Amino acid sequence: MNGSAVSNHAGFVSRAVAYLIDALLVTAGAIGVALGTVLVASAVGGPVRDIADRAVPLALAVLPAVLAAYNWFFWGLAGRTPGMALLGIRVVTVRGGRASWFASLVRAVVLAYLPIGALWSLVDRRGQALHDKLARTMVVAAARPPAVATDQPGRSSTAVSPVRQPQPS
Q1: What are phi and psi of 71, to 5 degrees?
Q2: Which of 41, 54, 125, 129 has the fewest CB atoms within 10 Å of its CB?
Q3: 80 and 89 in contact (C-beta within 8 Å)?
Q4: 13-22 pLDDT per residue, tens
Q5: Which DSSP state fits 98?
Q6: Is 109 within 8 Å of 68 (Cβ atoms)?
Q7: pLDDT in tens, 53-103
Q8: Is 102 helix (H, G, I), strand (E, B) or coil?
Q9: Is 57 contained in some domain?
């Protein structure tokens, strides 16, 4: 991508909905782990129950760190989280390239611990939030794969058609 291709920044609503989807996924996983811990501790009883009673609130307190790790992993690996993929948006550098693992980490930590900074994207001309500014990234609408011709006239597909082999006679 070049500088002009990066002008297609994602809107605040798309970004917010993607963030909520991802936050719900992480929270559901954390609640599942917490409930599992409580159930096992209840079955075992005794001192294990006391440990679980102290561990569950601690686990919920580190939820922002879990969200940061989740975002860092997906942004570093694919440039988008599952929530972003559902909404057709992705993270790129301000020059339009793939965000590095370090930029993804900076972005993830700032977003997890200072989510109010996301509101900056409402007033920024390039739609960048605070975490984007610090990591030198931005969120853009993902490019759709080009359509390729199919065997049927007037129809196209994003999947590549298999090559037909001649049938032996």
Answers
A1: -65, -45
A2: 125
A3: yes
A4: 999 999 999 9
A5: B
A6: yes
A7: 777 777 777 889 999 999 999 999 999 999 999 999 999 999 999 999 999
A8: helix
A9: yes
Query: CA 44: distance to chain centroid?
Result: 37
Separation in Å, CA 142 to CA 60, 73, 92, 138: 33, 19, 10, 12
Please identify which residue in the block is written with the tokens 């079955």.
43
pLDDT value at 27 more than 50: yes
Query: How many helices (H) and strands (E) are present in the chain, helices listed first?
Result: 6, 4
* Helix (H) / strand (E) containing 101: helix 101-113
| Calpha distance 82→84 (Å, rounded) | 5
Look-up: residue for tokens 């561990």? 55
* Whether the model pTM is above 0.90: no
Helix or strand holding residue 157 (H, E)? strand 156-157
pLDDT higher at 2 or 74? 74
Residue range(s) defining the domain that contains residue 19? 7-144
Q: How many domains does the chain have?
A: 1
Helix (H) or strand (E) holding 145: none
Within 10 Å of residue 66's Cβ, how many Cβ atoms? 17
**Cα–Cα distance measured from residue 87 to residue 17, given in angstroms and rounded to the nearest whole number:** 8
Taking the C-alpha atoms of residue 134 and residue 125, their distance in angstroms, rounded to an integer, is 16
Integer Cα distance of 62 and 109 in angstroms: 12
Length of the chain: 169
